[in-house]
Amino acid sequence: MLIRLIYASRAKSLGPMDVKDILESSRRNNTAAGVTGALCLSNGVFLQCLEGDRVVVNALYHRILLDPRHDNPAILDFEEIIHRQFGAWSMGLVSTVADNQALFLKYSTGAQFDPYQMRPQALRAFFTELMGNTRWLA
Ligand SMILES: Cc1cc2nc3c(=O)[nH]c(=O)nc-3n(C[C@H](O)[C@H](O)[C@H](O)COP(=O)(O)O)c2cc1C
């Protein structure tokens, strides 16, 4: 069964190479596991969308939770999906450059991007728009 899990967490003691390292291992492992998705880092908060088989995504999420580079995880959305949104991305990284700020803020309740406050419907719309509208980091 195909599902999508969206969660947020707070980045913790991130070194300059950490995001690159996370992305590299994500791409390697997710490709092998048939997981796709996107990772945003903005305002010190990770927001990640994981798509794939329910059991596989669950196991991956629990492994990611053990990572010391973040804390305060919260599942924000978990649902069955008909098809993937990020089929072409084993893990896309969304940059926080100024170009994307308008999109982040469009979906924010306050002046800062705060996914913990976002409702599932807003999160889904946010990721849909991200797909078409964002400057992605390679
Ligand atoms: C916010 C965040 C998101 C991550 N996302 C993934 C992911 O999608 N897939 C993955 O394999 N590892 C992800 N990781 C990294 C894992 O926690 C772990 O370091 C990695 O899977 C280890 O892979 P390796 O044993 O192949 O080196 C993420 C880590 C963080 C902090």
The 3D shape can be described as globular
| Secondary structure tally: strands | 6
Mean pLDDT: 88
| Structural classification | alpha+beta
Instruction: Please identify, by name, the CATH architecture.
Output: 2-Layer Sandwich
Query: Distance between the terminal alpha carbons, to the nearest Å?
Result: 29 Å
Rounded radius of gyration (Å): 14 Å
CATH topology description: Alpha-Beta Plaits
For the report, how would you describe the main beta sheet? 6 strands, mixed
User: What string gives the helices and strands in order?
Assistant: EHEEHEEHHE
Q: Give the low-confidence spans.
A: none
Number of domains: 1
What's the CATH class, please? Alpha Beta
Proportion of beta-strand residues: 25-35%
Widest sheet, order of strands? 4-1-3-2-5-6
